[in-house]
Amino acid sequence: MGNRKSVINGTIVFSETQQFRTTWLWAILISCVLISAVVTVATVLADETNKLQATITLVIIVPLETLMIYLFYIVKLQTTVTTEGIFYRWWPFLKKYSFIGRNEIDRLEQGISPALSYGFHNIPDYGSVHNTGPGKGLIFILKDHRRIFIGTKKLNEFQSAVESIIKKF
Fold this sequence. Notes:
Blueprint lengths: L2 E3 L6 E8 L3 H24 L4 H24 L1 E7 L2 E7 L5 E5 L3 E8 L6 E5 L3 E5 L4 E7 L4 E5 L3 H13 L2
Parallel strand pairs: 8-10
Antiparallel strand pairs: 1-5, 2-3, 3-4, 4-5, 6-9, 7-8, 9-10
Helix pairs in contact: 1-2
């Protein structure tokens, strides 16, 4: 969504880094890993004939689940507002920033993130969504009619920063 930029241009007015730190999400992730490992180990102990299959399953599943937890832990939604526009990216998956130029914004609205919609995705009739948990954010309605929702933990600061760069245009 928007242009891609390797570097942030302009004077920084607002910056925020968000991570997945919702308690219930972490409880589900860790529970799934523990349950699958315990079930596999219990299978090995209960039935000696499937020992090789269970061991192979553990060797495959545990590293994959560990990688999944690691990625959830390190992924960040980085949002920066500068005098040029809004830069955002999902690190480490995107090296370049998505960019919304201040002159591309038709209007701005406060919004609430769609229920149980975390991460980056498109929702029909809602637009592109970027958030790390439930809460509020800004909906950018662009001149080409695209909609982009960016969640934030600092709504008032984010909105003030965006409004200040739009007014200068």
